[in-house]
Design a protein that fits this description.
450 residues, alpha/beta, Purple Acid Phosphatase, chain A, domain 2, 5'-nucleotidase,  domain 2, 2 domains, six-stranded mixed sheet, 30% helix
């Protein structure tokens, strides 16, 4: 019998407070298993990078590549944070010094060829001759990839294309899936040839794994809270005879002296890279969650101008502090860390009025939200530009004129408001224009320098 050990991480999102312990656990286990004569592989399943962190922002993801190199990873796939929060050129060079394989079967250049840094799959052979085919897939945000000059194919269809070769040339098949648990469960049910699916994207936790038909699913949550470990037993004919999964709680691992210094060193390095001065302010710009203040109003106006819209609104919670004096790129990241893009949508007056009435709900300011790119704490009050309410909500004016029910209006908002969680009218709008790769902080920088 041969034993194969697979360690996996996912959705770290640049939460490096756990990284020293993860690195140490992986190094110790790799040394231990190798000494026992067992095969061991290390995989990351995407969203290792998140541009909220100054180290990732300052290096545009290349620093994350170096961390994965240092930890001795075998292969990774990309998540949406690598794929659609980086400008084309930065993603194209992020992995140029990688010492691991980047497996992303469903991403292509616009001419249909594969990017130089990505492979659809790799086949690894153990010392006993067992062939392990590993394929990577990333979540199907095709429209956003296209705006960044990448072509993304539907992942399940792409998997079907690649599987025939893998089945003929592998004894074990592993999928690195940055697709989310529902799609992983579907794939497990439809493709019994896949032995293991290591999941990500939906931040799900599978403590002992999950078996669907012949396939073992594993996933390690988010932010480096867990490290996953899958063990495979393989017989002399290279057939899998047993498989199991476990998660190790990183908070239960011993913290060593110097771990926090290592985390702080990454922050300081990022700060140095982002020390470029953007503008010198003659007066402070205040930022408050629950009362009107200068900086949210300025950002709201900037988004409307950037999108060439009739009106705009944002939530004040997008800005995490004031600005004063000499403003650097790090300052802009600190107060606006979200990977959120500006967006313009076209609505009738009736649709626009319905959305605006919803924004006046008294529960909005204190609402806590997670995901959709938001990296703040609470929603904060809604801030408007060229939108005015009279007599409660009975009269709403756009740029001084009462909304006309059938008239078309162009509304500028943060893209998170179009994803269906908040406003159904914004989600269903037929005409949406997303602005990539600019984040809200880039629009704020543009406004400040003007």
């Amino acid at each position: 019998m041969e034993t194969i050990h697979i360690y996996h991480t996912n959705d770290l999102h640049s939460h490096f407070e756990h990284w020293p312990r993860i690195h140490r656990r992986l190094a110790d286990r790799k040394q231990w298993h190798t000494a026992e004569g067992d095969a061991v592989y290390l995989f990351d399943v995407g969203d290792h990078m998140d541009r909220w962190h100054p180290f990732s922002e300052g290096t545009m993801g290349k620093g994350n590549t170096e961390l994965l190199n240092d930890a001795g990873y075998t292969a990774v796939t990309i998540g949406n944070n690598e794929g659609i929060t980086l400008p084309h050129g930065n993603l194209d060079t992020m992995y140029e010094n990688a010492k691991f394989d980047v497996l992303a079967a469903n991403i292509f250049k616009m001419d249909g060829s594969r990017p130089q840094w990505a492979k659809p799959f790799s086949i690894y052979s153990t010392s006993e001759g067992t062939r392990i085919g590993v394929i990577g897939l990333t979540v199907y945000f095709a429209h956003f990839y296209e705006m960044l000059d990448w072509e993304l194919t539907e992942p399940v269809k792409q998997l079907k294309k690649e599987l025939s070769f893998l089945k003929e040339n592998s004894d074990v098949i592993i999928l690195l899936s940055h697709l989310g648990l529902p799609i992983d469960e579907r794939i497990a049910a439809e493709f019994p040839a896949i032995d293991v699916i290591l999941g990500a994207h939906t931040h799900h936790i599978l403590h002992g794994g999950k078996i669907i038909k012949n396939t073992l699913l594993g996933a390690a949550g988010k932010y480096g809270q867990f490290v996953g470990h899958v063990t495979l037993q393989v017989d002399e004919k290279h057939k899998v005879t047993g498989k199991s999964a476990i998660l190790y709680d990183v908070n239960g691992m011993a913290e060593h002296e110097g771990d926090r210094d290592e985390e702080q060193a990454l922050i300081q390095h990022g700060k140095q890279l982002l020390a470029e001065k953007v503008v010198s302010l003659p007066a402070s710009l205040s930022s408050e969650y629950f009362i009107e203040s200068a900086l949210p109003s300025l950002l709201c106006e900037a988004i409307r101008e950037w999108c060439d819209a009739d009106c705009a609104f944002i939530n004040a919670g997008l800005l995490l502090g004031p600005l004063t004096g000499n403003v650097t790129k790090f300052d802009l990241l600190r107060i606006c860390p979200h990977p959120i893009n500006p967006c313009a949508i076209e609505l009738t007056g009736t649709e626009l009025k319905e959305i605006l009435i919803q924004t006046t709900d008294a529960t909005w300011p204190h609402m806590q939200i997670k995901g959709l790119g938001f990296r703040g704490n609470v929603m904060g009050m809604i801030v408007y530009d060229r939108i005015a309410f009279e007599h409660g909500n009975s009269i709403i004016r756009i740029n001084g004129k009462v909304i006309q029910p059938e008239k078309k209006y162009r509304l500028a908002i943060p893209d998170m408001f179009t994803f269906g969680k908040f406003f159904s009218e914004a989600f269903r709008a037929k005409k949406k224009q997303y602005y990539l790769p600019e984040f809200l902080r880039n629009v704020l920088e543009w406004k400040l320098t003007r």
